[in-house]
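Z., the sequence and structure:
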Amino acid sequence: MLDSTRTVTTQLMLSVSAATGDARLEAELRYDAGDPLAVSLAIGTQCDEPVVWVFARDLLAAGIAGPTGEGDITIEPTGDGGMQDVRITLATDCLATLLAPRDRVVEFLVETFTRIPSGSEFDAVDFDAEIASLLA
């Protein structure tokens, strides 16, 4: 779903496994062309203050095909033949494992790469404006 010419979002229902038990949460994947290398995952969008994780768009794309990531975020395909869901594991003080429908994640990524193709992310950045804002 397109919010504007700059933003791509997709709504998800995530299956969540954590130390406190399993749950289903509303979530949203977001992509803003103003930050062309990153995607964000907002978890608990039905809450007043959802938890937002920001990570590389390429990490999410690589996780569609096979296990990827180190440290706080890992992503891998799951299910029969490894292609039904995408498992996103978030590690901080605790560990949360999220399952997102693979087809929704792929649709989201296709739209983001249509908007800003891989390798052209910096073409969309106005470096002069960015430097001016840092110096202001």
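The chain has a mean pLDDT of 84. The first strand starts at residue 7 and ends at 18.

Let me know what you think.
H.
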